[in-house]
Amino acid sequence: MSPSTDTIAALATPSGTAALATIRISGPDTYRLSSQLFGAAPRLRSATHGDYVGREGSILDDVVATRYAAPHSYTGEDSLEISCHGSPLIVHRILVDLLARGCRAAGPGEFTQRAFLNGRMDLSQAEAVMDVISARSDRALAAAQQVLRGALGRHLAKLVEGVVAALSTVEAYIDFPEEDLPLEDRKRLEERIAEVLRGTEQLLATERTGAYLREGMATVILGAPNAGKSSLMNRIVGTERAIVSPEPGTTRDFIEEVARVGPHGLRLVDTAGLNPDAAGIESVGIGKTLERAAGADLYMLVLDATRPAPPLPDALGGRITPSNTLVVVNKVDLLAEGGRPVPSILPGFQSVRVSALTGDGMDSLLDGLSRMADGLQQTFGDERITINVRHSHFLVEARACLQSALAKVATNGPGELLASDLRGAMGALGEIFGKVDNERVLDQLFASFCIGK
Ligand SMILES: Nc1nc2c(ncn2[C@@H]2O[C@H](COP(=O)(O)OP(=O)(O)OP(=O)(O)O)[C@@H](O)[C@H]2O)c(=O)[nH]1
Ligand SMILES: [Mg+2]
To answer: For ligand 1, atom 13, which residue shows the shortest CA distance?
Structure first.
């Protein structure tokens, strides 16, 4: 990969007023710039305090600079970080000055892109940088950090290794088309490919969990009008997000809000009450509720403890199960001691008794939701790594190639075609890293050949 020729600069911290702001500079001109700015280039990897003097001679701010030399920096290039006071005006002046000195304003993600191009991280790690920054729950953060530390890359490397090993066996026999692969070699080959296929499928299975972590699990709050759905939503998100009123049919449109529940991020959706006798605009709302419910991951079925449980719409019957639905019996504060029994609930479903009014039972509600969310998440062995849509695209491609390779092994198909399938799988897996280092692959490949072959 050819090194960058220009030096980029950008604000690395949020724009706006803050205690500090950090401006990042990276590229071949960094050393010259640093020397120019501070009289001498600041010592590597240590904080250097000094005045930032603009080109026309005025002091823009007193700053702390940290210099890194290639390749030991985030981007792998010579870099400089300047911490100044967090004033948008100071930041603007410093950036204008840096551009006047020959820097170019960095585009979005350009520092990380350089890190990737300079081999500081593979593509899956570069993507994880964004996931780490935007994680909205403990789980999402943990998964993103694992991928950033290279966990996904390591698993993929293992899969590529398996394909390379299989390929080397096949390549060895291509030169002798008249000879059949000995039975035991074929068996080994089959096992190897099957193992890579299993690993590929295991990774693929984490895609849904990846989507949960990035977007939050869609959790729909269902129930009869006036059961207290909006009150519960407000309790969970901690604000008066949805309108609550004694009038049944208050909520017409659905209201969505992300909430952290235990280590999970849930996308709570408050909906219009399910009223079988609804007409007009209310029935439109109910139609939307059912539509929304069809694609949800989790459900909270809210019942009013003081009323008999209403029948569930048929459309929901097929969707809600004991593993995705928590029955929430609300308004238990209204139950007289030893009075009316709690409405009969769905057998086999987990239920909690709460009062949205007093907050009673909210802990067990959150606990129940959290455990349900746990149950829906796929772990990869002990690890919480997950894949994204781009990874999934290439893993599906790899899976198809591996399946086709297995079929050829089973029917003793031609070695060239088998090799081509395996190369296809390798290429697809390599796309997830961003590239396959062909030289390394080839080195490995030939290292496993016997001398004289
Ligand atoms: N006593 C008591 N009243 C509650 C409780 N939860 C909700 N309410 C009251 O019940 C009424 C309806 O509450 P909402 O939260 O608007 O109910 P909803 O299910 O969203 O109603 P719709 O949007 O009309 O379907 C309001 O007057 C709430 O104050 C509770 O736990 N105890
Ligand atoms: Mg409501």
So the answer is: 228
